[in-house]
Amino acid sequence: MTDSVNIGFQENHDYGMMTDKKWQAIINNDASYNNQFFYAVKTTGIFCKPSCKSRVPKKENVRIFQNAEQALQANFRPCKRCKPTNEKLPDSEWVALITEYIDKNFIEKLTLETLADIAHGSPYHLHRTFKKITGITPVEYIQQVRLNVAKKYLIQTNKAIADISICVGMPNTPYFITLFRKKTGHTPAQYRELH
């Protein structure tokens, strides 16, 4: 008896159930379902109309909402691409979402195209807006995050330089060493000795 009550609560808590029809609408960018429901992606913190042309999320990361207000109340931000609230997300908030994603996923292969896809915008717009808000490009920010983590590894561990380069998402060790020297003035080995 308790289980059925909990299951019912969970469905109500999620403001709507994922049905095969809704999932097909998301996969097929079906505009006929717009305003019937909205979907949010837990990993990005963004919600969309069913017709959104963004990359199809993993089904297990999707939450369904009956309206945009419910998605906003659950702390999801409107997509820049499909504009489910017909309002633009302020650029600073959009860039904050992107930097947060980079901070959590810097080990992955991150390209401008990948980030634009995840952030529901174009690579050109992402690059321009990111630089306007932060003063650096998304690629420079990714490098900065990776090198800051590498510095911690160099100081706090005895890991080999090649292992550290892999741990920070840069499997090409010579490139890692070159970039590290360019940005810090020292090779990773020199940096470790100094600190």
The CATH C-level name of the largest domain is Mainly Alpha
Kindly report the CATH topology of the largest domain. Answer: Arc Repressor Mutant, subunit A
**Major sheet description:** 4 strands, mixed
CATH superfamily of the largest domain: Homeodomain-like
Q: Percent helix among the residues?
A: 40-55%
Poorly predicted sequence stretches spanning 5 or more consecutive residues: 1-14
Biggest sheet, spatial arrangement of strands: 3-1-2-4
End-to-end gap: 61 Å
Features:
alpha+beta; 10 helices; disordered N terminus; DNA Methylphosphotriester Repair Domain; 195 residues; 2 domains; DNA repair; Me-P-triester_DNA_alkyl-Trfase; transferase; Arc Repressor Mutant, subunit A
Give an overview in words:
The chain has ten helices and four strands. By secondary structure, it is of the alpha+beta class. It folds into two domains: 2-78, DNA Methylphosphotriester Repair Domain (3-Layer(aba) Sandwich), CATH 3.40.10.10; 90-195, Arc Repressor Mutant, subunit A (Orthogonal Bundle). The termini are far apart. The model is unreliable at 1-14 (pLDDT under 50). Its cofactor is Zn(2+). Residues 96-194 form the HTH araC/xylS-type domain.
Topology:
Blueprint: H1 2-13, H2 20-27, E1 38-41, E2 46-48, E3 62-65, H3 68-73, E4 77-78, H4 91-105, H5 112-119, H6 123-134, H7 138-156, H8 161-167, H9 173-184, H10 188-194
Summarize the structure.
Helices cover 54% and strands 7% of the residues. The protein has helices at residues 2-13, 20-27, 68-73, 91-105, 112-119, 123-134, 138-156, 161-167, 173-184, 188-194; strands at 38-41, 46-48, 62-65, 77-78.
